[in-house]
Amino acid sequence: MTIDAHQHFWFYDPERDTWITEEMQRIRRDFLPSDLEPVLKQNGIDGCVAVQAAQSEDETLFLVQLAQAYSFIRGVVGWVDLRAGNLYDRLEYFSQFEELKGFRHVVQAEPEDFMTRPEFIRGVRQLTAFDFTYDILIYPNQLKAALHLVRAVPEVPFIIDHLAKPYIKDGRITTWANFMAAIAKQPNVLCKVSGMVTEADWKGWKKEDFYPYLDVVFENFGPDRVVFGSDWPVCLVAAEYEQMKGILDEYTARFDEETRRKVYGANAVKFYNL
How far apart are CA 132 and CA 114, in angstroms? Predict the structure, then answer.
């Protein structure tokens, strides 16, 4: 089974979705399962994981309802306030939905030390009681805090979204690569090869721009802990779906069929229990 382990759905709301700037005009509209399903079929993808874009429990329930209505949505990564005093009760409530696999917080919008704060670490630790996963969404300057988090809670299954958004456009790699290597030493952490095109020159990127970063990910995480994701529809600001997927297709062409099977689905199925 082939899986796109990272994409989004929304009814566009300009007041809520302020992160969608004017230069991202192409995605300032609704994106729903009926838009994605034919794209997945055209690209040989059997199913997907819908990931939260807004930070509310309503968002979580919205995605769960979509997954219940569309069988190709194999799992959901939602949002819950991981610092809330009643977090355990909220997790217990959400555990009734088999479609819901884990949670994410938009940490890239938070201070650098956010993931080192005791109340956040306590919240993440509670995910283990219900077998939930956690998606790490950060910028490279937050990798040190991410390393602290994954070491503090080794029992939680983590996955890094978008390679931690390296500075591909500027060609900066060394500090990012060192932290990614350190994080990869934690066996409970995987990495999504997703969202790369939005970190490059949107109008002038070349496939070769991404290869040094992919080298770091594959060399450190290995074939069992790398997962394909598109970041559709956000990726559309810089590339069509088939262009974005084509970067990884070409890069992994030298790998054996078993490795490609893992990257394009099996690893996601195992991690998210799809």
Answer: 20
Quick check: 129 and 90 in contact, CB under 8 A? no
Q: Which two tokens stand for residue 95?
A: 């555990």
Q: Is the pTM of this model over 0.90?
A: yes
Q: What tokens does 222 get? A: 């290995």
Q: Do residues 210 and 250 make contact, with C-beta atoms less than 8 angstroms apart?
A: no
Whether 107 and 83 have beta carbons less than 8 Å apart is answered as no
- Give the model confidence (pLDDT) of 95-106 as tens digits: 999 999 999 999
**Torsion 13-17-22-26 (CA) sign:** negative
**CA neighbours within 13 Å on the CB side: how many for 107?**
31
CB 190 within 8 A of CB 156: no
Which residues, including other chains, have CB under 8 Å from residue 267's CB and lie 6 or more apart? 190, 224, 225, 226, 227
Distance CA(241)–CA(233), nearest Å, equals 8
Query: Using one digit for the tens of pLDDT, what is the confidence trace for 197-239?
Result: 999 999 999 999 999 999 999 999 999 999 999 999 999 999 9
Domains and CATH numbers, the chain: 3-272 (3.20.20.140)
124 sits in which H/E element: helix 118-126
The two three-digit tokens of residue 262, written as one number? 């893992």
Tokens representing 217 are 């990910």
**From CA 137, how far away is CA 132, in angstroms rounded?**
16
Burial 209-223 (b: 16+ CB within 10 A, else e): bbeebbebbbebbeb
Which residues are within 8 A (CB) of 96 and not within 5 positions of it... i.e. 6 or more apart? Answer: none
Give the number of other Cβ atoms within 10 Å of residue 240's Cβ.
14
